[in-house]
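Usage example:
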Amino acid sequence: MVDAHAARRERLRQHCSASGADAALITRPANVRYLTGCAPCGASLLLTRDRALLALPDDLPPDDSGEHLVPDDPELSLVPVPAERDTALAVAEDAARLRVRDLAVEEHDLTVSRHRAVAGLAKGVNLLDLARAVERQRVVKDEHEIADLRIAAEIADQALGELLESILVGRTERHLAMELERRMIDHGADRAAFPVSVGTGSHSGQEAHLPTDRRVEEGDFLTVVLGAQYRGYRISTARTFVIGAAPAPWQVELHRLVFRAQRAGREALGPGVPEHAPDLAAREILRTGGHVGSTAHPLGHGIGLEIREAPRLGPSDMGKLDNRVPVTVGPGVHIPGKGGVRIEDTLVVRPLEEGGPELLTITTKELLAL
Amino acid sequence: MVDAHAARRERLRQHCSASGADAALITRPANVRYLTGCAPCGASLLLTRDRALLALPDDLPPDDSGEHLVPDDPELSLVPVPAERDTALAVAEDAARLRVRDLAVEEHDLTVSRHRAVAGLAKGVNLLDLARAVERQRVVKDEHEIADLRIAAEIADQALGELLESILVGRTERHLAMELERRMIDHGADRAAFPVSVGTGSHSGQEAHLPTDRRVEEGDFLTVVLGAQYRGYRISTARTFVIGAAPAPWQVELHRLVFRAQRAGREALGPGVPEHAPDLAAREILRTGGHVGSTAHPLGHGIGLEIREAPRLGPSDMGKLDNRVPVTVGPGVHIPGKGGVRIEDTLVVRPLEEGGPELLTITTKELLAL
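Running the assembly step on the lines above writes:
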């Protein structure tokens, strides 16, 4: 992995010199991690033509969790910075000391105040905008990254599978969400990739329902949206089940519709396919089923070190998908006051010769009656 | 509370006109909540001389948790914004439409890119820096806010008290942290105010240890750092216990030292007292006990809608404490490879006539042998 990080930094160096910068200041945590393997909050990376200075808070606990490990990377010079101080400002001074002429910074990450402070300390240095160069580099994953995503997906599937074997009626959304987070950690997740969402009855089918004290009842739809983070890599998945032996006809029908829409979205994935294609495919099926409302959101998005990253799979996204891009595909229908269905997977775009999209989240999407 | 929010907005209006701005754009979530009582992520507030436009994502779940409720405030005009769009940009256009001349924005919150986008849409509007005007307004709490902090503290105390009655030996730091978060939610917390930290053995005594799979063993120090959030208001507390009947002499001694330092810090709190006084009082006691290392951090900080807010109680902080300012007081000593002790409370600064500092986190600070 150390080589992988070095190679990523080399690509960024090439991008910088091509765009007239002789150094880059990386402050966005996911980007620092991508380029160094290092994830303590508050770390900053100064990348010059021949050096890589990683500024870290000097009070990192001696035995920190895997998440925050500082890699043993010979090319990285570690710069300890007093805990109270902004590491970006420390390396800004180094940039001046190292006679950097044009420094590309992440203007989408630095606040106006921090940017001003960096400019003030980087004496004689001209600040440019690196924009989302590192985010673009992150879109296509290597097989190491995909291996971590696979493990994150296994962890979420295990936690969900165990929950389905337990008694659900009478338990609150908050309890179920907590239990899923605990189980993911038991199975080796760094943490939940985002707060688990559990929605029952009229709460079901929403994308980001905040769990409440509502208890699971017979006849409810139960929607679970969960994701695990493993070595920094995150996946997201959603399933909707019905509680009790006999789902109502409208439940069976609605679930079948969302299931078909989600499958159409998955099947539309492929290298060279327009980013809007999966969304339009899924949207069309929901429309024929008479539902549109709750699909204002894009069908999915890229996923990796951040839960939402490029590309976006919305109806107006015009780019083309690449090979080895992990994305979510998750349509949903929510009927206010009644409930609804969400089904989401994380998949990796693969060419047909390799079997097409690789499904990472393998929990069944059938309508289970629990 | 609606009146309180209106009064807060009026104070901000006065600050703005005094500093030559005829409107303010509030984007920092805690500040939006302070001024409106409204907390959906992504909300922005445009405050002009005679209007208050609250821009919200248009896809808020119909039955959202109390945390995100939109208050029924006659003075607020709600502006629904498509979920995919930045609400700050929507109100920037409104600012131009409303003929705002000088708009104060939160440069410590807006990224350079967002600031540029706001400037581009607020045609003919001159952007100023509001700086931390709202944060300064938030320092002194009213009794409604303190009442919420009291409840948050009760919740954390209850969760901790229940944990102490359970068997701890053999359980992992991660499990104990999860259980504390679950119990706080059971007792009515919106959520944990921050990820609970549980450190045992050599992990004990650290400020922000990330829970690991290490299991609690006989003879361990056990440090728990936890906080609850109630109606948006957060508190923080830390306690250190020893596992097993017979603490070692070094444990008794170290705990007594940190206990005395923490008490000295608490007793130094008062209206008109320099912000550095509590830190110096605690630091002096640790020094006489031969410990300095792990007190590089300030002794404490203000706390409220954010877990860390003004004032900071560090050795170099020169301001004076005010009445009704909630702060944390939490010294700690960590001996690498061996462990340590942290003891932290959240208190409200009160004058002696009112009985001095009001302790919110009342769990015993004695060295319990569990």
